[in-house]
Specification:
Strand order of the largest sheet: 2-1-3-4-5
Radius of gyration: 33 Å
Distance between the termini: 59 Å
CATH architecture of the largest domain: 3-Layer(aba) Sandwich
CATH topology of the largest domain: Rossmann fold
Structural class: alpha/beta
Length: 189
């Protein structure tokens, strides 16, 4: 559970500090931003597995803006919106735009940790699927190469057997000489 890189975005310094301390205590790698613009700069230059962002923030970019910027940069980064103004409409709008979840303030840290664990598990499954797909591609390529090599070997052996058959069927040559010539053809390859 400790291998998620998380960006926390909130204009409330107390909430920001609480989230930072709690997540660091769980040994997550944490960066913080005090507004959407600061978050945008960090998102543009860094990779994060999870963005925890307040929905309502002053300064031109709110949580939905952070969500949209995040998804534009990397669709696999998960975004959890946090708000004191919870409503079904806000939650539906956030989920439609790609948020993985929606939390209400004050934050229930046990609930947050469960959601982060769920995200970690989901990311592990995606990584495992990607690794499996890559392994299957390599195996398929190697199998294709092996089949091609076997087809070439079979063609060479068929040609060699045809030469041996021709040598053995020649009536004008002594039978022991035909056997010697046939063996020479077999050894030549």
């Amino acid at each position: 559970m400790k291998d998620l890189k998380i960006l926390v975005v909130d204009d409330d310094p107390i909430t920001l500090l609480l989230l930072e301390k709690r997540l660091k205590a769980e040994e997550y790698e944490i960066k913080t931003a005090r507004n959407g613009t600061e978050a945008f700069d960090l998102i543009s230059n860094n990779h994060y597995d999870v963005i925890l962002t307040d929905l309502k923030m002053p300064g031109g970019m709110d949580g939905i803006g952070v969500l949209e910027a995040t998804k534009a940069k990397n669709s696999r980064t998960e975004v959890i919106l946090i708000t004191a103004y919870a409503s079904v409409d806000n939650a539906v709008a956030a989920i439609q735009k790609g948020a993985v979840d929606y939390l209400q303030k004050p934050i229930n840290f046990d609930e947050l940790m469960l959601r982060l664990q769920r995200i970690k598990n989901m990311k592990k499954l995606v990584k495992d699927a990607d690794d499996l797909r890559e392994a299957m591609d390599i195996t398929e390529f190697n199998a294709g190469q092996t089949i091609q090599n076997l087809e070439l070997t079979v063609a060479q052996l068929q040609s060699q057997l045809s030469e041996v058959e021709n040598v053995l069927s020649q009536k004008g040559i002594d039978s022991s000489e035909r056997v010697r010539l046939a063996l020479d053809r077999l050894v030549a390859v």
